[in-house]
Amino acid sequence: MDAKTQAAFRKRLLRWFSQNARILPWREEPSLYKTVVSEFMLQQTQVKTVIPYFNRWLECFPDFESLSIADVRDVIKLWEGLGYYSRAKNLQLFAQKFIKNPAKNFLDLLKFKGVGAYTAAAIASIAFHENVAVVDGNVVRVLARIFNLRTLFPSKDNAVKCVTPLANELIDAQHPGDFNEAMMELGALVCTKNNPKCENCPLKDLCEAFQQGTVDKCPQFIQLERKKCLKKRLWWIKEGCLLLEPSRIGGANALWELPELTPERAACFVLDKLLFVGKRSIGTTTFTEEIYAASVPNTEPMWLKQCTYFPLKDVHKISLSGPHKRWIQALLKKSF
Ligand code: SF4
Hints:
single chain; four-stranded antiparallel beta sheet
């Protein structure tokens, strides 16, 4: 793309964005803190899911200071249902570290736990106006179509690596944050994966795939086979209390789940009855989780010491990961 075409690309994209950008809470009276919180929440999660969480978060933790001194259990509780809980812990770590040693640019941001190239570029360009392109799945799709890239990408990471130099060449040095947001917005609203709205696209005259009729062939990925994983979990109620164990990701007893029955653990029990089968997907793996009622020998196994009994009437007050919350609610409605 020559310099004149690049200039036209930027101008049309930014004009479209100024007229079509969604009203989002982190775009109203923007601040570094709002940008950081929204970018952590938006990792792996859709905008419409994030909005209520973002609003509640800002009410409880309006700035880096309040977040840095919060009890990690309150932080995790507020994140409950958003998934990928390490993000909540990393966001609090970000606040604690930032207060002592504020990041000033893209490279500084990369030193924070949980901040990869994508998040660092988003924060640096939006909050610090640094000239660094953000490349997510939306941007990969837009640029693969604009340049009619017919490569068969082995993975999303590989596609991001391939497209990043193109995005860095195109970025508007005067408005890098707006440019990045505009690219992602165009990918989310117009240049969608299925049924892109090419006739309404501000870039259609500059889009090679549109001109060549190959939009549905860009980008292309090698299809990965989905992996399957079976887990067993324990449903055990004693004197009106449900046994739960701390999740490895929550840490500090902040997030709880039904105890996993690894083969070693299961050997101590007689599995009486399969009560429930839950499913969930993480990345390219589909987990089938079987929840069993069980009998235990007279001596309780040592690993139960890591677990805690919670009164059934208080279960709704503790932080549970999204799937566990759903499964427990479903099981509590059943009568055995
Ligand atoms: S013309 Fe179509 S394929 Fe090309 S960028 Fe616009 S929406 Fe995407």
